[in-house]
Amino acid sequence: MSTADDQSVGMDYLESFPRKFLRVYLPLGLIIVFLLFPFYWMAVTTFKPDAEMYDYEKYNPFLIAHPTLEHIKKLFFDTDYPLWMWNTVIVSVSATCISLFASVCAAYAIERLRYKGSRYVGLAIFLGYLVPPSILFIPLAAIVFQLGLFDGNLALILTYPTFLIPFCTWLLMGYFRTIPYELEECALIDGATRLQILTKITLPLSLPGVISAGIFAFTLSWNEFIYALTFISSSENKTIPVGAITELVNGDVYHWGALMAAALTGSVPVVILYSFFVEYYVSAMTGAVKE
Amino acid sequence: MAVMAEPVAAQVKRSSLWSRAFESRNFLGAMFMVPAIAILILFLAYPLALGFWLGMTDTKIGGVGRYIGFANFVSLSKDSVFWLSVFNTIFYTVFASIVKFAIGLYLALLLNERLPFKSMVRAIVLLPFVVPTVLSAIAFWWIYDSQFSIISWVLIKAGILTHYIDFLGDPWNARWSVVLANIWRGVPFVAITLLAGLQTISPSLYEAANLDGATNLQRFRHITLPMLSPIIAVVMTFSVLMTFTDFQLIYTITRGGPINATHLMATLSFQRAITGGNLGEGAAISNAMIPFLVAAILLSFFGLQRSRWQQGGRD
Questions:
Q1: Is B58 helix (H, G, I), strand (E, B) or coil?
Q2: CA-based angle A79:A83:A86, to the nearest 5?
Q3: Which residue in chain A is spatially nearest to B112 when comparing CA positions?
Q4: Is the Cβ–Cβ distance between A35 and B187 less than 8 Å?
Q5: Would the pLDDT of B139 be above 50?
Q6: Which of the four, A139, A247, B262, B268, has the lowest number of CB atoms within 10 Å?
Q7: What is the DSSP string of A59-94?
Q8: Closest CA of chain A from B10, distance in Å
């Protein structure tokens, strides 16, 4: 059944198929169904007309008898959803760029220049990652208000790097460590400046690390909720997660179709990005843990 | 001549100072740190300190507060809703973390088997971690709907139940419902990182154990667990920290209801500070989370040190 290709653990290849099915495939299948079901349910509800959504007697709820784009149309044309999406893109891209720039510089300095006290600064930056946003949002709200940034994209663009920089720096430090010192030494002897070394040698060689840090930063920004909920008040400035749950619920009337459409279409960009770079994503996530 | 020479000498001196500074690693290092440090001081360190201060004031939104010492904490200590939120937070963290660990470890062991389409399965498993939490929480909200819950429908069709479950209307049902959503969200992270740990364990250890006649359980107990323990400590610290300070899932699915039964300290702090306008009181609730967080970090840190020491390793 299974081809004898990779490093097998022990002598599992002697196992018969029915036994392996019960021991591995069945539990794995059940867990995957559990993990994927909410997405399936999200998609089914998005494309189901209201008549079917609220009638479990006549229609099987797992299937769609008459698929419709009505909910997506409503979401895109009757709400501020396109604006939320635009805000989310602007905020995520800007916060990611700022964080990547700051993190590349910091990680390079800590890992490569090894200036006096760099170890402690590195540790301090890592500790910053352990400070949860749910402790910071109240004082940050006060600061954002004082700086006059309240209810604007800039409030989010400037605060998101607080959780992105520690993470990206930590990840990039690991990547920079894998590049041999000798390369930099040769360049130094040839008269290259530190800046040239960074842009012409270290950065190109650690491109996979920079890409994975960027994807992580982008998905984390896209996912952020509590700051966006606190610092933004008008509908046209909201991000997708905040807009979806504050604007699509009118009192006790839940527009489930539109809500599910927002959940689905809001997830799609991240999932597409993720599926293109999944190998980077997984290796960065596991690499960061191994450090 | 001398008049001409002086500025040239000064120029040479200045430029050499400048270029020497650029060759100095300490100076360059400091320059490279400026962007990161500036942002982190202004929007992380300063707010953290401001949060401590706000917790000791009676600041309202749009007003200037005055210092009232520990009065916020004194009034919270008499506040039954606050204590309920502490209980809920601990309940949520303990149960969600234990189950996330158990399923995550099991899933990691399954994924470590020889499987067809291994990398695709791994990519699928990670999806709940990638999709924005609030958006998947909306799906759970709908799954838990009192009239149209698909779970209730299936159970009734299967003849197990006779009426719909009130998932979010009953305090205990609601607590278990949000725990389940949190488990769903957290399992992939635990599983993938533990899988990475499993793959660093040398197969020769298992082969040696096999030759000695060890059973599956013995191999797991005496090889897998000890080799995995440093990564388990790191993953579980993160998992506990994220669960303890969770906000998104609760805010989306229950908003703390019914009758505060699912309020976590984070959601209560939001409700008091932003919705209710009492920034000082909200900050005090946030600050009350810090001792728990520090304890979690220290526990795993010293646990890790101890396990390393037991293995005879240094550093």
A1: coil
A2: 145
A3: A9
A4: yes
A5: yes
A6: A247
A7: S-TTS-SS---HHHHHHHHHSSHHHHHHHHHHHHHH
A8: 24
Contacts of residue B271, Cβ cutoff 8 Å, sequence gap at least 6: B256, B263, B282
Torsion sign, CA atoms B23, B26, B31, B33: positive
Query: What's the CA gap between A104 and A170, in Å, rounded?
Result: 10
pLDDT at B30 over 80: yes
Q: How many CA atoms lie within 13 A of B298 on its CB side?
A: 6
DSSP notation for A154-192: HHHHHHTHHHHHHHHHHHHHHHHHTS-HHHHHHHHHTT-
| CB pairs < 8 Å spanning A and B | 297
Task: Report the distance separating Cα B209 and Cα A139, nearest Å.
Answer: 55
**What distance in Å separates the CA atoms of residue A287 and residue A176, rounded to the nearest whole number?**
13
Distance CA A95, CA A163 (A): 10
For chain A, give the percent of residues with pLDDT over 90: 42
For residue B40, give how far its alpha carbon lies from the nearest alpha carbon of chain A (Å): 6
CA distance B100 to chain A (A): 12
Residue type, B125: V
Which among A39, A102, A219 is the nearest to B36, CB-wise? A102
Count other Cβ atoms within 10 Å, centred on residue B48.
18
| Number of other CB atoms surrounding residue A145 within 10 Å | 15
Q: Is the pTM of this model over 0.80?
A: yes
